[in-house]
Amino acid sequence: MAKKVPLRQCIGCGEMKSKKEMMRILKTPEDEIVLDMTGKKNGRGAYLCKQRECLLKARKSKGLERSFKMSIPSEVYDNLEGEFDKTNE
Question: Which of 50, 67, 74, 81 is deepest in the core (most CB within 10 A)?
Fold first, then answer.
């Protein structure tokens, strides 16, 4: 029997993909928003495809705000975009 692959929904495009294909954005217990490259850190996670468009869509549609039920300052998105660019080089 094939092992079940955990699927996650992208908060940008809404597509379901396996966890390995996605990046995890984390809200830590201290309410910090960080990019979790390991996928193992403690906190509430939201998932994004590894495409910049999905991050931009999530920013426009307030996907992170909905996932974390809190308002997210634009510098957090700017930081995520910066980290995003670094990991995709």
Answer: 67
